[in-house]
Amino acid sequence: MPQLSVGDTAPDFTLPDQSGTPVSLASLRDGAARGVVVYFYPRAGTAGCTKEACDFRDSLEGWRRAGYAVVGISPDPPAAQARFAEKQSLPFPLLSDPDHAVMEAWGAWGEKKNYGRTTTGVIRSTVVVGAEGDVTLARYNVRATGHVDRLRRELGLDD
């Protein structure tokens, strides 16, 4: 699947959050002055996904002050997302994309190397969508550790 690049229009989506409530990209953009940080992760509760989610959680106030909303998307069902959100005290939406249609449209699903093997699955990625719906930053195949800090530096948000 082609990956998104700066200047592309981000494909809209509506997916259920951890409580089963539909959430759209448009509604997230409406609530954020500068845009939305959309991050894709493989599986709720795993070590890397927990590290990344907790880094977003711990810096969420800074993201909000800067005018950004944060949302995570994985193929996990809403019930698994709810357990993950509760266990880690995650105060932002976690969306369920079990058929990975949104991940495919955003270039976050495809072949990847894992421990020397080629597999198909979620490509850990983050796309920042501006208030008008355009991609302002896109990072694919990122490492969970240090990723949130790098994003903040790239966007000039260091506190």
UniProtKB/TrEMBL annotation:
Example GO biological process: cellular response to oxidative stress
Catalytic activity: a hydroperoxide + [thioredoxin]-dithiol = an alcohol + [thioredoxin]-disulfide + H2O
Domain Thioredoxin positions: 4-159
EC number(s) per entry: 1.11.1.24
PROSITE patterns noted in UniProt: THIOREDOXIN_2 (PS51352)
Coiled-coil annotated spans: none
GO CC annotations, alphabetized: cytoplasm
Domain of life from the UniProt record: Bacteria
Oxidoreductase listed as a keyword: yes
GO molecular function, one term: thioredoxin peroxidase activity
Stated family: Belongs to the peroxiredoxin family. BCP/PrxQ subfamily.
Protein name as catalogued: thioredoxin-dependent peroxiredoxin
